[in-house]
Amino acid sequence: MTYSHDVFAVDFDGVLCDSAAETGVTAWRAGGQVWPAWHGPEPPSEYLRRFINLRPVVETGYQAVLLMRLIYTGVEDETIELQFPELCTSLLDESEYSAADLVRLFSQARDTWIDRDLDDWLDRHRFYVGVVETFAARVESDPVFILTTKQERSVRILLHSRGIHLPADRIFGLDAGKSKENVLEQLSRRPEFDGNRFHFVEDRLQTLIRIAGRSSLRDVLLYLVDWGYNTPRDREKAKLIPRITIWDSCAFLDV
Ligand SMILES: [Mg+2]
Questions:
Q1: 245 CA distance to ligand 1 centroid (A)?
Q2: Which residue among 98, 145, 173, 204 has the highest number of C-beta atoms inside a 10 angstrom radius?
């Protein structure tokens, strides 16, 4: 194996794996604990269709519960797209549940599903064709980390299902309770990566913009993938930011 000078930090949902359908169902089940009118394990298919379409607004899992709530209460797609953070805040204000409660309920709903019917849970995910194979090859040759707002356990199980065995200390998930920028800072300060180039790959433009604003991360190379949970508007905006490179699936991890 040749010595590498490149370290990769890669987001999971929307970059390697499309979990929008699973997230919508998990959101429905978690929300059923809060709003008893949400009967049964599956949301009506029309709600799920809208949820998948609106998935780009969600940054962290628990917000999926709030997105499903907005759909359920009949808020228009365009209003959700333009005002999602504000709508989340007012939903939380008028509910007796906090964001922390929703994080817990969402995690519990997903864990229960995994424990009761792992195959069904795995079936609701779709890995991006070509991308996951490129990722698997990089894992063999270079230091590769996953930075995600998902639970580490879910990521581990999903990667295992594709024969990818990333050591536990290479996955930074929601459980770590740190922001992606803090994890990146920590990694880039590690003595073993002294002088290495860091590549950070995301499908959410807002996350890349936040990282671009950190002076301590000015040397990290930033990439937006042109699939996953971003919109044509996001990609147009990204083109105007010189710091960000847009990758299609052929360019993915090709440095
Ligand atoms: Mg993502």
A1: 16
A2: 204
**Cα 167 from Cα 158, distance rounded (Å):** 14
CA of 66 to the centre of ligand 1 (A): 18
Could you give all domains of the chain from N- to C-terminal order, each with its CATH number? 6-17+126-247 (3.40.50.1000), 20-123 (no CATH)
Q: What is the pLDDT of residues 79-107, one digit of tens each?
A: 999 999 999 999 999 989 999 999 999 99
- Contact of 162 with 138, CB cutoff 8 Å: no
* pLDDT tens readout for residues 162-206: 999 999 999 999 766 789 999 999 999 999 999 999 999 999 999
Distance 224 CA to ligand 1 centre (A): 10
Question: What separation in Å is there between the alpha carbon of 10 and the centre of ligand 1?
Answer: 9
Reported as a single tens digit per residue, the pLDDT across 44-73 is 999 999 999 999 999 888 999 999 999 999
